[in-house]
């Protein structure tokens, strides 16, 4: 067996372990179970995981639980910090406070009130498993969609600040109710291709009629252009949504002899985190195409 083949097999097995953890985040996760998932020897599992992932398996589990906790703190005000600590696997709020502050440099209570998303992104250890993917892509023709928008200008790491502001507007006014109106993200730039200060992204919600623009939230009216779109469904963490976007550009477009239209790509968020587990997130990626 070649070195490349052996490495690929180990990565594939580790991906299964991480997928199992993501699907069983509220369960008791022990080494024996994780070894059985991907047929690792318990004598070598810890070293293999740490060598390939850069962190230990227990650090990975804690990281995923703390990530969910961070989103719960900001976007689920009905949960107390104690509730969130218990869901993250901590028996005592003090130990949760220490672990959260060590990772994200803010206490849970401070993060809930004034989240520093820049620091959060710097500390969050996102792990990607690059693999060949094949997606079902559907060509749709849609009608234009009126939306209310908060325009985000600046670092992609601070998009969540804009999202939180937009959610507050939706809940306060009821003009684009989250449970009844579709939620979108309109992407003007590839975050990897422009300086952070030039990145543009619209956080959007469907509306029945134009909303007053003289509001304290900075909401503006826009329209998602109607027409032909190539639509691919992204399943799971939105940290990796770039894989789906690049699949459309790099593989689907040339294979189907299609050309992108002069309009931005947009995301339709079918559900929201942390209301559903991260592995259950569904996002339809709409790439405008000519015709």
From TrEMBL:
One GO molecular-function entry: sequence-specific DNA binding
Signal peptide: none
Keywords associated with the record: DNA-binding, Transcription, Transcription regulation
InterPro entries recorded: AraC_E-bd, GyrI-like, Homeodomain-like_sf, HTH_AraC, Reg_factor_effector_dom_sf, SmbC-like, Tscrpt_reg_AraC-type_HTH
Domain HTH araC/xylS-type positions: 15-114
Pfam family, one: HTH_18
Protein name: AraC family transcriptional regulator
Source organism (scientific name): Marinomonas piezotolerans
């Amino acid at each position: 067996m070649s070195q490349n083949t052996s490495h690929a097999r180990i990565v594939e097995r580790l991906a299964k372990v991480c997928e199992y953890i993501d699907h069983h985040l509220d369960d008791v996760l022990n080494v024996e179970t994780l070894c059985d998932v991907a047929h690792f020897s318990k004598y070598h599992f810890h070293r293999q995981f740490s060598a390939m992932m850069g962190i230990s398996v227990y650090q990975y589990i804690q990281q995923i639980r703390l990530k969910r906790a961070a989103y719960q703190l900001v976007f689920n005000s009905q949960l107390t910090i104690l509730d969130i600590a218990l869901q993250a696997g901590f028996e005592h709020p003090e130990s949760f406070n220490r672990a959260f502050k060590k990772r994200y440099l803010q206490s849970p209570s401070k993060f809930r009130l004034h989240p520093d998303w820049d620091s959060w992104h710097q500390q969050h250890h996102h792990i990607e498993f690059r693999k060949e993917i094949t997606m079902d892509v559907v060509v749709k023709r849609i009608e234009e969609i009126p939306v209310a928008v908060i325009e985000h200008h600046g670092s992609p790491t601070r998009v969540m600040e804009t999202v939180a502001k937009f959610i507050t507007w939706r809940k306060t006014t009821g003009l684009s109710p989250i449970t009844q109106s579709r939620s979108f993200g309109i992407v003007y730039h590839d975050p990897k291709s422009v300086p952070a200060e030039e990145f543009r992204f619209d956080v959007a919600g469907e509306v029945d009629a134009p909303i007053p623009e003289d509001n304290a939230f900075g909401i503006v009216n826009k329209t998602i252009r109607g027409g032909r779109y190539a639509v691919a469904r992204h399943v799971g963490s939105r940290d990796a949504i770039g894989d789906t976007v690049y699949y459309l550009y790099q593989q689907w477009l040339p294979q189907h002899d299609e050309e992108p239209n002069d309009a931005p790509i947009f995301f339709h968020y079918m559900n929201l985190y942390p209301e559903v587990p991260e592995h259950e997130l569904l996002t339809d990626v709409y790439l405008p195409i000519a015709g």
